[in-house]
Amino acid sequence: SEAMLNDVFTVVKYEFLAMRRSSRMWLGAIIYTAMGLLAGLVYIWVVRGIRDGAVKLVTQQGANAYAASTAVDQSIDQFYPKMIFGLIRFFARCEANIADVAACTDKAATLSTCDASICAMYNSLIDVSPILLVAFWGTLTFLPFFIVLLSFDQMASDVQYRSVSYPLLRISRISLYVGKFVSHALLFLALTLLLNTTLFVMGWLLLDGFHITAGLLFQLRTYALLIPFGLCYLALVSCWSSFVRSPFLALLFSYASLFGLFILNQFRRTAELEAPWKFLSYIAYLSPSNWEWGLWSPKFVTLAETIVVYLVFAAVFGGLGLWRFMNRDL
């Protein structure tokens, strides 16, 4: 209803005011963005340093500066596809048999399901700068940990100090829960948008051979996919923050859950075992980590399925947290 939406908006507004006064929020946000920007700067420094060193070496061998620069740029253009292929193989959640990018261009080659998916991703990402691919992988890897760091006490702190009773005199529990969830979701979306946009601009201005159109399309895709991904882990944190009374316990259980979900994901490796142990691989589907590989897929259907799965995880975790908050003694 309109009244509930107004209450949620009020909670979001006051949550952002509280975040502005929180030194932990500022510290966590600075660390998250600084680590990403530092990684991007190191990558750019390494790439530019290798190129300048190669140009200098070729020039010392008697070539003029223009010819040396052209030769080095051509070598880099030939190396980038191999680098992108290597990154995709590294990110893959399956055992690849192909070791060279040439297999993806060989129409006569017989590829396994894993190899075919790797080649499909390679062909769709060939024009995307490696800095954007590494940034996307880094976000998928570290964003859950920073969501826990920034949001673990969103409910537990107010419950512990009984301050949650005051807003509940004016608004409903569901409005308070949803408002806090939305405010923290907007926070991680803003930080992720800021970091990835800055890395895109850095790559565009400082790297040679940066394809703007391909990079921009990949960034738009990244923003769209990180929304359900982040909401899934934020809902997990909100769930634990609603179940316990202590912020420390919320932090402890949230990080323990991330580790536990990682363990569940490792059960996918049992698919290679013989029956009856092979069925254990289905346990991996209970972990959000198991579905990250689908976020790299060039197929719309696979992307849509993966987005739905993450939204289902978010609904389950968030629903459990809301149920607990609605029924607990405050």
> Which ranges are low-confidence, i.e. pLDDT below 50, for 5 or more consecutive residues?
none
Beta-sheet strand percentage? under 5%
For the sheet with most strands, the description reads: none
Helix/strand order, N-terminal first: HHHHHHHHHHH
- Rg over C-alpha atoms, rounded to the nearest angstrom: 23 Å
Q: What's the N-to-C terminus distance?
A: 25 Å
* Net shape: globular
The total count of helices amounts to 11
Quick one: how many beta strands?
0
Average pLDDT score: 84
The residue fraction in helices comes out at over 70%
Structural class determined from secondary elements? mainly alpha
Describe the overall structure:
Helix 6 runs antiparallel to helix 8 and helix 8 (173-206) runs antiparallel to helix 9 (212-243). Helices cover 73% and strands 0% of the residues. It contains 11 helices and no strands. It has helices at 2-20, 23-60, 65-91, 102-105, 113-125, 130-151, 156-160, 173-206, 212-243, 247-265, 300-327. The longest helix is centred in the first third of the chain and has 38 residues, at 23-60. It has 330 residues and is mostly helical.
What is the secondary structure topology, with strand pairs?
Blueprint (H helix, E strand, L loop, with lengths): L1 H19 L2 H38 L4 H27 L10 H4 L7 H13 L4 H22 L4 H5 L12 H34 L5 H32 L3 H19 L34 H28 L3
Helix pairs in contact: 1-8, 2-3, 2-6, 2-8, 3-5, 3-6, 6-8, 6-9, 6-10, 8-9, 9-10, 9-11
